[in-house]
Design brief:
The protein contains 13 helices and nine strands. By secondary structure, the chain is an alpha/beta fold. The protein folds into two domains: 203 residues, 3-Layer(aba) Sandwich (Rossmann fold), CATH 3.40.50.150; 82 residues, Helicase, Ruva Protein, domain 3, CATH 1.10.8.100. The strands form two sheets. It has a seven-stranded mixed β-sheet with strand order 4-3-2-5-6-9-7, with helices on both faces. A two-stranded antiparallel ribbon has the order 1-8. The chain is elongated and about 65 Å long.
């Protein structure tokens, strides 16, 4: 019996069908699972936070490599199968929760692990939470050594894109760390088979970004109209007169006729510093606070759970 057939049989015997609404595609190839765990580079003293363990295809190899594994699974129907699969492992905590809502540092403490322990994230992510979850991981206070994720191939290519083909997603990831595409996965290694290829991406954090919220504010404005020049997108997105947008870009030594996808990460960081130094960020916060006090009832809450951009 193949591992794929075994997974189908176990799900069926438990009366469980893969849920498209949760983007569930279970890894069935054990050789691929072993390779992903090797690529994660886990050291014996490290803790792994696994997002979306499913029924444990990766988890059973992770527990052999890590000091402790915290497996976060949103689908409560899978928890009994996951517990059965890992019944012999003493170094695993299985948690039914939404990874977009949990406090990662608190999870370590609850598992009896020092919050300063070196951490690696591993996960198989559905498209609709990829960018929001990556930002939550990268902005956490944990000592993150790497993040190894299985995502749609198109998403992987956007994450690792270089200037000339950048997107809001690539900027948002590369501000915090270096991404690499490690391997490509055929639909045949999953059940049910997805319609597209997948890829394994590793993100290695390198520093904390100064003024991240301001940088993302600028990036959102810049990418809001991809075909337009920065002088136009920043003017519209930041509600600046075009003369101010031109001056801002000139001070940052960026040609106002360029488009957002051509900027490098150092250029985005420098633009952010200039924006802050010129006082635009403080003025915008002041205007926003005044507006919020007058129109608070009209402000809708953000829906980050379904966001595909940061």
């Amino acid at each position: 019996m193949s591992h794929s057939t075994s997974i189908r049989s176990r799900l069926r015997s438990a009366g469980i069908a893969p849920r498209k609404s949760l983007g569930q595609n279970f890894l069935t190839d054990d050789d691929t699972a072993r390779r992903i765990v090797r690529l994660a580079g886990i050291q014996p003293g490290e803790v792994v936070l696994e997002i979306g363990p499913g029924i444990g295809a990766l988890t059973r190899h992770l527990v052999q490599a890590a000091r402790h594994v915290i497996a976060i699974e949103i689908d409560r129907n899978l928890i009994p199968i996951l517990q059965q699969e890992l019944a012999g492992a003493a170094n695993v905590t299985i948690l039914q929760a939404d990874a977009l809502a949990v406090d990662f540092a608190a999870l370590l403490s609850d598992a009896g692990v020092d919050a300063s322990a070196p951490v690696r994230f591993v996960g198989n992510l559905p498209y609709y939470i990829t960018s929001a979850l990556i930002r939550r991981m990268l902005e956490s206070s944990l000592d993150i050594r790497s993040i190894v994720l299985t995502v749609q191939l198109e998403v992987a290519e956007r994450i690792v894109a270089q200037p000339g083909d950048m997107s809001l997603l690539s900027v948002s990831v590369q501000v915090y760390g270096k991404p690499e595409q490690l391997m490509r996965l055929s639909p045949s290694v999953f059940y049910p088979q997805p319609d597209v290829d997948s890829a394994v991406v590793r993100i290695t954090p390198y520093h904390q970004c100064d003024h991240p919220d301001t940088l993302f504010e600028l990036a959102r404005a810049g990418f809001s109209q991809r075909r337009k020049q920065l002088r136009n997108t920043l003017s519209a997105g930041l509600q600046l007169p075009k003369t101010d947008a031109d001056e801002l870009l000139a001070d940052a030594a960026i040609d106002a006729a360029r488009r957002a996808e051509t900027l490098s990460i150092p250029e985005w960081m420098h633009l952010t510093e200039v924006y802050v130094q010129r006082g635009y960020a403080a003025a915008k916060r002041s205007d926003s606070s005044a507006s919020d006090s007058l129109n608070n009832s009209d402000v809708a809450a953000p829906t980050t759970a379904n966001s595909t951009e940061l």
